[in-house]
Amino acid sequence: MPEIVHLGEYVPVGDLSPMASTAVVFVVGVLAHGAFAIFTRTLARRSRYRAWVTEQSAIDPSRPLAVGYATLTGDVESEGEGEVVAMRVQQGLAGSDAGGRRIWSEVRRTVEARPFYLALASGERVRVEPGTRVVAVDDLGDATYTGPWARTRSTLVKAGQRVTVAGILRRGFNPRARDGGYRHAEDGFVVTPPDDGPLVVSSTPLADRHLARAAVHAAFARWGIVAFLLVHTVAFGGWELLALTGRTETADLVHVRSAGGRPRIAYTIPARPARGRAPVVRAESTTRDVASQLDRATSGTVPVLVTPFGTAQVNPGRVPRTPTWSAVVASVGLALLVLMHLRKARQATPWYERRRIVETEAP
Fold this sequence. Notes:
- By secondary structure, the chain is α+β, with helices and mostly antiparallel strands.
- It has a domain at 53-204 and 355-361.
- The protein contains six helices and 18 strands.
- α1 (18-59) runs antiparallel to α3 (207-235), α1 (18-59) packs parallel to α6 and α3 runs antiparallel to α6 (324-347).
- The N and C termini lie far apart (89 Å).
């Protein structure tokens, strides 16, 4: 029978392993939380920039054109008859609310668009190539009923109408480039949909669209920074302090006792009078295997990590670990933050960019 038990890399019940602790701190605490704060901050800056571009276009519509995100206002010119953009929303009767108003819910949305030109105040003609990713922003027209439970509402953009187009301004083929000639046509200005959304053709100003999104993203960027600081203070602060400043000492195992049927290990961290530190006794839940080893021994030791600032942070073993609850709190908190951001961002999305339009109608 052994007289002395030496516990090496002892892992208390409820703690993650050293490798898992390191992975959780860096992946969840640093990368994931940091990425959320940076990502929402980037979205806020982009939305503010687009709002600024929109406002500048309204203030000085004759300013020189530049490649990049642009909001242009002008008159629609078409190469043929009919609408250049037609958005039709088919709706079905979904019921009624407490006030007796009928609720119409979108069933299907179709968008038909073809290239057209925008005549700017400067005299420049910009070619607009909407493709399949385009939305028309205007009040939906009168409903056309196709049955007692079905109707269609439309938004149409026609030649001669004054609209604002928001998209990416590029160099491309434009037969109506102001300077004329084939070479100028090849290097004319063309507007296409941005990579992160549809081309918007609107009869009303669009700055509010971007400002609403910027407010949501900026708010969650601030919350992301607060969550980052809380995670690295409350959840992972002890691990980081021990990882940076921890020193290994040997603690004496005092006894093993049972609490509610679960074995526990108690150990004493020796006094260090030179540092003004008195002996400290700590207790940890342990496994029955460790408890049985100590039952057969006269004494035991275990290595512990202690910070130079005292024994407020103590970690049994030579490598810092983090408790399971801290990983759960950090992960669940981030997940809730992401879900709340998605919900608020959806609420700030204009009706014409939502996947489903729901309207109420007086009885």
